[in-house]
Amino acid sequence: MSDCLFCKIVEGSIPSTKVFEDEHVLAFMDIMPLTKGHTLLIPKKHHENIYDMSSEEAAQIFSVVPKIAESLKTTFQSVGLNILNNNGAPAGQSVFHFHIHLIPRYDQTDGFKAIWHTKEKQYTSEMFAEYAEQIRMNLNK
Ligand code: AMP
Ligand code: ZN
């Protein structure tokens, strides 16, 4: 895609600080890191988000995550890692070329705010059962 920032990074017309590359994927340092070592992993082929990818394409990119995770841990002696992927603007996606964030964690005040804040109980077990049934029905559509 000619107007996609990450496609330009893949082409090399916009610079990036690469950490890993193979035939299908590229990993580089996030320009506005949430913590030290924040890295992005992208497919070289343009996909807007997970809805735009086959399971094979998704498997291919996710299979690279452990290798980079291990290297970040060794490099930064980080003690945790958030693996994050935002799909769609309401989910916080700002660059519309699929990417996986790898965010090394050091402690709970290292700059990355926890996103899991349990709200007061608003779903019943009947609601969970109903949601699960609908999800199961839609799995193979
Ligand atoms: P998201 O909000 O999930 O779409 O994440 C987009 C990420 O891309 C943000 O963390 C940005 O800091 C990062 N980003 C934007 N432009 C660049 C760039 N030129 N090089 C590296 N990372 C970038
Ligand atoms: Zn792109």
Can you offer a commentary on this structure?
By secondary structure, the protein is an alpha+beta fold. The chain has a single domain (about 5-115), classed as 2-Layer Sandwich (HIT family, subunit A). The chain has helices at about 5-10, 55-60, 65-75, 125-140; strands at about 20, 25-30, 40-45, 80-85, 100-105. Strands 1-2-3-5-4 form a five-stranded antiparallel β-sheet, covered by helices on one side. Strand 1 and strand 2 form a beta hairpin. The protein is globular. The two termini are about 30 Å apart. The model has no long low-confidence stretch (mean pLDDT about 95). Bound molecules: adenosine monophosphate (AMP) and zinc ion. Zinc ion (ZN) binds near residues 1, 4, 6, 46 and 97.
Please supply descriptive tags for the structure shown above.
141 residues; alpha+beta; HIT family, subunit A; five-stranded antiparallel sheet; binds adenosine monophosphate; binds zinc ion
Order of helices and strands: HEEEHHEEH
Give the strand tally. Answer: 5
* CATH fold assignment: HIT family, subunit A
**Gap from first CA to last CA:** 28 Å
Sheet with the most strands? 5 strands, antiparallel
Q: Total number of helical segments?
A: 4
Q: Determine the CATH superfamily.
A: HIT-like
Low-confidence stretches: none
Class by alpha and beta content: alpha+beta
Side-by-side strand order of the widest sheet: 1-2-3-5-4
Summarize the amount of helix as a percent range: 25-40%
Bound molecules: adenosine monophosphate, zinc ion
The top level CATH class name:
Alpha Beta
In CATH terms, what is the architecture? 2-Layer Sandwich
Number of domains: 1
Mean pLDDT, all residues: 94
